[in-house]
Amino acid sequence: MTRGDTDGSGRTGAGPWPHVLLAAAVGAIAAQFTHGGAVAVLLTGLPGLVVLVMVTVVTGGALAVCAVLGTGARKFAWLGTAALLVVPAVLVVDAVLFMRAGPSDSPDGGFSPSPLLWVIGAVLAAVPALLVQVSRTGGSSDGRSD
Fold first, then answer.
1. Helices and strands (H and E) in the chain: how many
2. pLDDT, tens only, 52-110
3. Cβ–Cβ under 8 Å, residues 53 and 87
4. How far apart are CA 113 and CA 98, in angstroms?
5. Which of 3, 42, 80, 140 is 20 to 30 A (C-alpha) from 74?
6. Percentage of the chain with pLDDT > 70?
7. Quick one: what percent of the chain has pLDDT higher than 90?
8. Termini Cα distance of the chain
9. At what angle do helices 16-44 and 115-137 cross, to 10 degrees?
10. What local confidence, expressed as pLDDT, does residue 71 receive?
11. pLDDT at residue 125 above 90?
């Protein structure tokens, strides 16, 4: 048995559910920062684009750390590339929601975030983590084989 191995299977890491939930939390937080970056682009131009690039880089790093902690193997750090899907998808949905809202008389100018952005970020970050965990456990969601 190795460190972190509880059932003698040789697997290490936090397990499927902590990995998936942590990735979902990273995705939801990334969606909030992506919305902030989109507002920064509208208000400042080029500095806002730098914010979006930094959000993508930090999200990728956070998802890679989640993958390494969740699986116990550095070879799954490539899951950080899911940030290349999370940030643009949230940007597209944010832009569509902003355009559909039209002119706004609200104090925030119509820039308030939608919970839909958090859901999209969470799902797009969690699905790759779940797929890797399922493939590692042979299809069993709890890590046990029948």
1. 4, 0
2. 999 999 999 999 999 898 888 888 888 889 899 999 999 999 988 888 877 666 666 66
3. no
4. 9
5. 140
6. 77
7. 45
8. 20
9. 150
10. 86
11. yes
* Residue 114: strand, helix, or coil: coil
- Give 34-97 as a 3 state SS string: HHHHHHHHHHHCHHHHHHHHHHHHHHHHHHHHHHHHHHCCHHHHHHHHHHHHHHHHHHHHHHHH
Given a contact cutoff of 8 angstroms between Cβ atoms, the answer to whether 77 and 9 are in contact is no
Q: Which two tokens stand for residue 7?
A: 């059932």
Whole-angstrom distance, CA of residue 127 vs CA of residue 47:
31
Kindly state the greatest CA–CA separation across the chain. 63
User: pLDDT higher for 137 or 64?
Assistant: 64
Which amino acid type is present at position 36?
G
Whole-structure pTM value: 0.79
Q: Which residue matches tokens 């939390």?
A: 25
Judge whether 12 and 114 are in contact, CB under 8 Å: no
Both tokens of residue 28? 């939801």
Question: For residue 101, how many other CB atoms are within 10 A of its CB?
Answer: 13
- Angle (CA) 104-109-110 rounded to 5° is 65
